[in-house]
Design a protein that fits this description.
Layout (H helix, E strand, L loop, with lengths): L5 H9 L5 H9 L7 H10 L5 H8 L3 H15 L4 H13 L19
Helix pairs in contact: 3-5, 3-6, 4-5
Length: 112
């Protein structure tokens, strides 16, 4: 199995949440609860952008980004910005896999 490169990175991100596939799929069912702006913020979370960069990209304040992130976390019921970012990454790039699929990938241990 390739332990470096984009495919390995996809596996690391998609498997960062314990029982990640189940949690991500549950969050996907809640995406329709998000406003259009919240979806835009969510997609930028997939790029690991900080609030300042998201604010600059969208032409809004950092405080507004922080409020949107809070709403996203609540509406998707994921518990944290990091988990929302993982859901966003999987949604944006269409990555679906299981924890077992990532065994042996460098850097997997300690993520999450």
């Amino acid at each position: 199995m390739d332990t470096k490169g984009p495919a390995a990175a996809h596996l690391r991100v998609a498997n960062a949440i314990p029982d990640g596939r189940i949690e991500v799929e549950a969050a996907f069912r809640r995406l329709d609860l998000l406003t259009e702006r919240e979806r835009g913020v969510l997609l930028l979370l997939a790029t690991a952008s900080p609030n300042r960069a998201i604010a600059r990209t969208l032409g809004i304040s950092e405080r507004t980004v922080k409020a949107h992130v809070g709403q996203i976390v609540a509406k998707l019921a994921v518990g944290s910005r990091t988990r929302a970012a993982i859901v966003a990454y999987v949604w944006k790039y269409g990555v679906h896999c299981r924890l077992e699929d990532a065994e042996g990938i460098e850097g997997m241990r300690g993520i999450g």
